[in-house]
Input
Amino acid sequence: KAELLLHYQPKLDIAAGQVRQAEALLRWQHPTLGMVSPGEFIPLAERTGSIQLLTAWVIEEVLRQLREWAGRGLRVQVSLNISTDDLIDPQLPARVSKLLAEYQVPAEQLIFEITESGVMLNPEVALQVLHGLRACGISLSVDDFGTGYSSLAQLKRMPVQELKIDQSFIRDLDDASEDSVIVRSTIEMSHSLGLKVVAEGVEFERSLQLLGRWQCDTAQGYLISRPLNAMAF
Ligand code: C2E
Ligand code: CA
Ligand code: CA
Output
């Protein structure tokens, strides 16, 4: 497990111009292959049934880091990624709750990012797990929104507080493009549903300006910062 580490990508509060949040992203430093991208090993872990072990490690490592930062007076809210298979485990809320107490981290400092397809595999159990996590005080976010089978009916049933617009809509954001219509209406819809909106994959100043004008809450992307190791963050 010593080869695993987390990087933290800043999430910018656009209106305040401040970073108080980050997304934890898993990294695998392989002794001979070098840095292996999660895009390669996460799907493998999912196929071989070992993703729950990885997720358990990520949750505990985030809590350890939050505890360490708290000791230095830093209060950061961290998002982490949860897989489909994690959502079919009815024990997840109880396990996380125990760890929160152990590390003395307020549940409000955690956001779990889920995908809609992850919920659709087994909606009964997944919704039960999500409500359990909410009951602990953990926030929930819908990742990669706009890809796959996004459905408003499904969104309404999920106890989520945040929605992340997929990078594919953000990359070439421009006043007159089709993407801009999608992004603007997603922001409006989310706000009417009481959700915060994060734009992912913000690479250009111009996109950030447009997002600010459209009252998007949060921006994440290389323009603000690449994912960083904990020390650099
Ligand atoms: P994701 O959750 O959608 O994470 C965002 C990905 O976009 C990250 O890639 C991040 O480095 C990258 N990114 C951020 N800003 C920009 C930008 O401005 N431009 C571009 N081109 N890319 C940007 P990363 O770290 O390689 O992770 C890939 C995927 O692997 C993640 O997508 C997520 O689905 C998965 N993943 C990462 N860490 C974990 C984990 O701890 N658990 C699980 N289950 N999945 C993870
Ligand atoms: Ca994510
Ligand atoms: Ca995403």
In short: The first strand starts at residue 4 and ends at 13. Residues 23, 81, 113, 143 surround calcium ion (ligand 2) (CB under 6 Å). The CA atoms of residues 90 and 129 lie 6 Å apart. The mean pLDDT is 94.
